[in-house]
Amino acid sequence: MYDLAIIGGGPGGLTAGIYSGRARLKTTVIDKGLPGGQMQNTLEIENYPGYKVITGPQLSELMYEHMLEFGAEWRQAEAVGVDLSDRIKTVTLNDGSSVNARALIIATGAQPRKLNVPGELEFAGRGVSYCATCDGAFFRNKEVVVVGGGDSAVEEGVFLTRFASQVTIIHRRDQLRAAPILQERAFANPKIRVIWNTVAEEIIGEAKVSKVKIRNVNTGVVSDLDAEGVFIYIGYLPNTEFLQGTGLLNPNGYVETDSTMATKVPGVYAIGDVRAAALRQIVTAAGDGALAAMSVYHFLESW
Q1: Catalytic annotation, pick one of 31, 135, 273, 288
Q2: Which end of the chain has fewer CB atoms within 10 angstroms, the N or the C?
Q3: For the whole model, what pTM was predicted?
Q4: What is the separation, in whole angstroms, between the first and last Cα of the chain?
Q5: Does residue 131 carry a catalytic annotation?
Q6: Which of 3, 83, 86, 134 is catalytic?
């Protein structure tokens, strides 16, 4: 029996573990992957306070060690279901075991949204990628395409210029949604070009990607664009399949919370990318985690 079970070990979950450990709550953090979540796939982080530049794996390890120092436990497993009907919350794991806790924090994050076009699934790992920092080095001196116009698309597009001979950003609108500083870097980079008002309709190749079929949304003109890599950044989908039927989710699959990170089920909280929020960053996930842990502490005071 735990005071608190945290499902998800990204920056939000790790921070919640730090704060709950400091509050002397018996805590377990459950995650199927490495500590840090998406941070593990980020080469450079330059907007986390206190570090001008730090790698994702470095920050992940520092947060993880910090959490362990305050007594929270780490359990590598995947949550496949929850029972929130009783006062004691039960988390079912993929190995058939379960974890019981008086309170629960959901911090399972989100995963890249798919284009759902022909060739995307077939060429996954053979030219199609959702992580430039993971796969960029495989495209040295090659032409690649980035699909998207937000922060991730532009930032990863700039990163890809370290390897690729040319990076073409395809965006369905006539202006990017990325932060101004990221746009400035992209437009100043001679290896980057942007094709506006355009969507990818098919990814083509034989053993690996060789072309992307694109369509101008204004004119309807379809053409082929030579490329050996396609990096897709069109948003994320929350990892909440295991919460279906709990009543915690909004129509888009995100968990609804109040200002204390509490859901409508007493003792259940949600933080980070899995939560319905206006901004999803490492620093906001960490802030969510701190607030949720303190909310749990006060909740358990009167439990």
Answers
A1: 135
A2: N
A3: 0.85
A4: 14
A5: yes
A6: 134
